[in-house]
Amino acid sequence: MLRTARPGGPSGASTNPASSVPRTHLAARLENGFDRAVAHQLRGRGWTVRIEPYAGYGATGWVRVLSRTLLAAPHVRDEDLPGAGGSAQAGTRSATALRGWRSFATAQVSGAELEVQVGDRTHRVVTDRGGYVDTILESDLAPGWHDIRLTTSDGTTATAPVHVIGPDVRVGIVSDIDDTVMVTRLPRPFVAAWNVFMRHENAREAVPGMARLYAELQSGHGETPVVYLSTGAWNAAPTLARFLRRHRYPAGPLLLTDWGPTNSGWFRSGPAHKVAQLRRLFDELPDVQWVLVGDDGQRDPQIYAGAAQHFPERVRAILIRQLTFGEHVLAHGVPVPTTDQVKAEQDAARRPDGIPVIQGEDGRALLRGVRERGVDLS
Predict the structure, then answer these.
(1) Using one digit for the tens of pLDDT, what is the confidence trace for 100-153?
(2) What kind of fold does domain 18-164 have according to CATH?
(3) The Phosphatidate phosphatase APP1 catalytic domain covers which part of the protein (predicted)?
(4) Residue intervals in the chain for CATH 2.60.40.10
């Protein structure tokens, strides 16, 4: 059975008749035509199909498989491809530093058929219009980290790590990236472009104390899952994965988004992406409560407060890193959080359901707050 899915969207191929499927947005149709023309030209110049694997997750009986199929120039080494970050997400390879623009020196391949080996089971999937696979597959894997094998029709292979969460796991961590674990000091519209195209990976700074905070939250709790949820582009996944490994953040899948047109509009919504992915985690892992970690530079306080309001039984605690004066100016043009952000934080702090809301300038301050509030992670 062939399955098609797109990161951030529902898993599995649609079973609706063609007549009921909404017409694809003009922007997406234009992008599709451009991509087909580019792919045709690049194949004629000897570019070859490669697989960019991303870390996935799962539970008893299933795994969520994430990957992308790309065309790359024949002289480009596999270790220089975006997929070189896939293993770094699982902590299984060195975090070799690269300049971010390498992550865009590729072209996606839509409609590519892949064979996916998950333990003793073999599945067949097909990439979507962006070259992505994001689908749920049956699995017989035991809890812990595993490698799954992806193979194209011409024999190109790649290995993607996947974290199978055990039935006894009760607490997990969802973490934002920009200004939560990584210092950006840039206006948000330019953050992703600068980090991906210009900035060398070694130049990126970690927010002080955050890696230790996550290690403390995981301490004594076995395979506590960590999921990095960001509005950043999938093209930045390898650089982000290597950054996390270099700065000793715990291994975990990245849930990013795809830049550019969607089937319904010119651009996709970052906040909507975060809300949808949180809801998906809540649905897929119903026995896990989540510690939600973000910053007050954008919409994390509102998103997390909404999650706690609608799904209080799924949220163990909310941790918000408070940006400095200068970081707030760069994030949204004013030296303090916006009125909506302040209200969201205040509303969350007054929550009647007992969900702790802890704020601090860095990981050290947040860790003190966790200890002082006696947050129970058992």
Answers:
(1) 445 455 678 888 999 999 999 999 999 998 899 999 999 999 999 999 999 999
(2) Immunoglobulin-like (2.60.40)
(3) 171-322
(4) 18-164
Instruction: Tell me the CATH number for domain 171-373.
Output: 3.40.50.1000
Q: Is the pTM of this model over 0.70?
A: yes
Residue 363 · residue 322 · CB < 8 Å: no
